[in-house]
Design goal:
CATH superfamily of the largest domain: Tetracycline Repressor, domain 2
Strand order of the largest sheet: 1-2
Number of domains: 2
Helix content: 55-70%
Order of helices and strands: EEHHHHHHHHH
Number of helices: 9
Shape: elongated
Length: 215
């Protein structure tokens, strides 16, 4: 039996260096996780299934991830960071702009990104929720960071005696539950209706829909 000698550091194979090959395998595993966790579900997905879909060995899997949970956490982090960046960016956009328009753009950024791929929506709303204690603690920490950023971004809106922290937490929770409704409903509500629902909830709570003279 021929003994395979490890490639020296920096040696290329098929045009890729060892670090490049590892990065490419990692991306394939993340793509496989998006497909399987987002369709079959986390609980029914095994490591052999992930390896087969990604075209890697179990050894390669454990080179990058300690467990299925670690892979799910990495995938969730990518989704969460993308949606937070989009929605917060829209909320901060143009400090002089009409706050109602900023709220609408932020709500639109949130829902349009998460519903752009049903697999993303399922992972964010279902598969990453309550699956594992450490992952759940991590997810709650991410939610807390999101609520804090939302609270800070919305502090420039007119204060109608509403606790901005509680309002931000309520909006975050309502948005997540609307996304869950979109994932689970036999007949999905339109994305535009979800955007309008959250926008209306936020604007009416702050009474931004009233004529200034009537406030």
């Amino acid at each position: 039996m021929a003994i395979k000698t490890p490639l020296p550091q920096g040696r290329t194979y098929a045009g890729l260096s060892a670090p490049e090959r590892r990065a490419e395998r990692r991306e394939r595993l993340l793509d496989a996780a998006l497909e399987l966790f987002g369709t079959v579900g986390f609980a029914k997905t095994t490591i052999p299934m992930l390896c087969s879909a990604a075209g890697v060995t179990a050894r390669h899997f454990y080179d990058d991830f300690d467990s299925r949970e670690a892979l799910l956490r990495t995938l969730y982090d990518g989704i969460a960071e993308a949606v937070f960046e989009r929605s917060m960016g829209a909320l901060r956009l143009g400090e002089e702009n009409d706050p109602r328009e900023r709220i609408r753009k932020s709500s639109a950024a949130y829902f349009r990104y998460l519903t752009s791929d049903p697999r993303i929506a399922r992972i964010y709303a279902i598969e990453a929720v309550g699956m594992h204690h450490e992952l759940e603690q991590h997810r709650r920490a991410k939610r807390e960071a999101f609520v804090r950023k939302m609270t800070k971004a919305s502090q420039g809106f007119e204060d109608r005696g509403i606790d901005s922290r509680l309002l931000s937490a309520a909006i975050a929770g309502a948005s997540h539950d609307l996304l869950l409704e979109w994932v689970l409903a036999p007949r999905r509500p339109s994305v535009e209706k979800m955007i309008e629902t959250i926008t209306t909830l936020w604007i009416r709570t702050l009474q931004l829909d009233l004529d200034p003279a009537a406030r």
